[in-house]
Amino acid sequence: MTGSIEQTRWLMKVLQPEQTVASLPGAAALTEPMRAALLGLAPDVYAAELGRLRAGAQEAARELLADPTVSAMVDRLPLRPGARVVAFGDSHTSDPQSWAVILNEMLAARRPADGISLDVSAVAGETTTHGLIRIGGVIARNPDWILFCIGVNDARTQGPTPSKTLVAPEETARNLAELRKRVSRETTARCLWVTPPPVLEARVSEHWGLSRFGVRFRNEDIARVADVIATFDEPAIQLFARLGLPPPQELLMEDGLHFTLEGQKRLALEVVRGWAEARAR
Prior knowledge:
Elements: H1 5-14, H2 17-20, H3 32-38, H4 43-65, H5 68-76, E1 84-89, H6 91-94, H7 99-110, E2 117-122, H8 128-139, E3 145-149, E4 157-158, H9 169-186, E5 190-194, H10 201-206, H11 208-211, E6 215-216, H12 219-230, E7 236-237, H13 239-243, H14 261-280
Parallel strand pairs: 1-2, 1-3, 3-5, 5-7
Antiparallel strand pairs: 4-6
């Protein structure tokens, strides 16, 4: 594929082939050049951009920890030495610069002696229905915490005049209830929920990459998913309230849906703040 730097960066932040095929027997054989080919990118371009993305996440973590207030919040996170954490979600979490990646860098830098592991289990485009299939693999890891950030794609619509979301609100509620039930019955893990964030609707419908598939989002549909999560008795990070509506433009990429590095850095901050606050209550 011949495209602009912006298009290359969008592809790599939004699509991760290795996560999409992770359940297949040969997924481990998917080399970096193969991943590049699946995205239509030259191997050297892919490798250089991936390195840049990862370095950006590390720098974001350092910048956050430079604030003593944030460092103190990381210290207060309810994580025992050796704790196993899994971040479970969609493209907001699978991004090589995601809030979860930044959080992992923060934990490694601030609490290295604690030996805390944070794994990412996230696939771009997935709904809560897909999550029901994948949650078994997370449960098998016997985590201490599962950080859920899933549901925005339930609210997705297709085409210029859609009459329904990909997953009906009632089904989303049932799916989320089933996820909670499985975790509570099959593990001793605690859950932290991050609600789907608001989008810039016009940008989504006009974006070169999303519009070719007819992707649309309405904040009122996303808010319905967030409202279900708000009823849970586990701690939840309410991103509509924390980011505002509409969200600040500088936090979102040109597609109005996915986050810039600055946006992912903000999400990481909100997760740390909300998690630390939940412990204090």
